[in-house]
């Protein structure tokens, strides 16, 4: 995890199914071309605290350009800032996030300023310059000067000979004609900084709340924490924060919201797993599913494992944590390790152990087929460069007198697998689950305030594609639930096509399924009966957008 996240974006990347960079990221900016940075060492650990604004603008423009071409914004920013001083990397992150949050307006202004569209990188730099000029606190001459200097640092082949003049002229024109370029009657995309189809759809489906939803989605999300109940819970986390002089509010049963975001490495107890970063709306999942000791639970789409960890913090249960993406499955293990939660050995696997030896797991069963060769814990261990995984069956050497007695049989923890939840034949052992969490892949339209790039990656037709995948997953997983068991269907979407519609269609076809609408959650007096949490800045219920439906299977 990067250590240079800005206060705005201190949280590690949340679970988000937004698209991968298309064709990989571009080469890093050539900071050595900058006249200012030529004379200074701007690498981390050097005495230089900040690169020139022109350098920061180049890095932000590269990241914005890549984001518009399909890259994850966070990944792009990390890529272009890893050699920058921490303060500059933070400034780049803030500039790139701010520009992404107002890209509807910036692209509208660009359309007015430019006779023909500039090459994408020059257009991204212009958008960043305009974003800086829109902010009335910024000194206009410095912004224009540094943005023009930044043009001269763009990689060869991007900036044509007159590009600096073009940038200078268009930024000055923006300053002169600002009011005419930002009239009150802007088109929806520019006015609400969401794609036009998105605005139309939210207006249709949430007629009373649509403007509040769009506004809340453009907010900077606060840093919300989940306290680990096994390590002292909310009381202990609160005590540690108070001792460090960090302002916070307690929210719900396990939640704490910091007054000021900060890099996660600075949060007391984060490294030891006392707290994890998780939105308050996401914290509802484990509470709704209500795991009980001794139960066998399936977390079907689990990476990066926030909800898996919460389930295990709540009860001594066995959680099968699946994710189709082996790389993301290994992140589940990292997160469980940090939270001091045990991994159960996979069938047929040999796991590394704390004292450098190995633990032989039980003989191979059908579960073994779930793993590709790259997805075993040992392989993930190597990839992640970790020393060892905490294993519930962490058997000490019996010939070492310093070691305690042999650990009794494993009875709770996570079995992490890289597997397709929609293909149970490839991983399921035939024993039904007591509870299933289906946190299905979705549009991520509820978590825009944390991932504003989702706005510019999604297309209208994607919503129907996600609905189809969600319907398929719930159909495939229902038979794995024991009679009397409970399935929690969840998405981080605000579109009913991915929530209410998927569940209604499913319930209507399955007489053994009952939708439990009268759910009460401790700490949530206004829990919505339709299970749809909408993104809100309300102090009492501060959260992202989620949809939850609790389904019970008749005996
Ligand atoms: C919304 S995220 C899950 C977030 C996670 N539950 C958490 O709280 O940290 C959806 C995940 O589903 C995974 N996924 C998508 N299709 C899948 C499938 N067919 N089987 C298993 N996992 C899948 C994606 O790789 C992604 O990590």
From TrEMBL:
S-adenosyl-L-methionine binds at residues 301-307, 381, 439. GO terms for molecular function: RNA binding; RNA methyltransferase activity. This is SAM-dependent MTase RsmB/NOP-type domain-containing protein. It comes from Lautropia dentalis. SUPFAM superfamilies: NusB-like, S-adenosyl-L-methionine-dependent methyltransferases. It comes from the Bacteria. Pfam families: Methyltr_RsmB-F, RsmF-B_ferredox. One of its GO terms (biological process) is RNA methylation. Residues 199-554 form the SAM-dependent MTase RsmB/NOP-type domain. The keyword Hydrolase does not apply. InterPro entries: MeTrfase_RsmB-F_NOP2_cat, MeTrfase_RsmB-F_NOP2_dom, NusB-like_sf, RCMT, RsmB-like_ferredoxin, RsmB/NOL1/NOP2-like_CS, SAM-dependent_MTases_sf. The active site is at 492 (nucleophile). Keywords: Methyltransferase, RNA-binding, S-adenosyl-L-methionine, Transferase. Residues 1-44 are annotated as: Disordered. The keyword Kinase does not apply. Belongs to the class I-like SAM-binding methyltransferase superfamily. RsmB/NOP family.
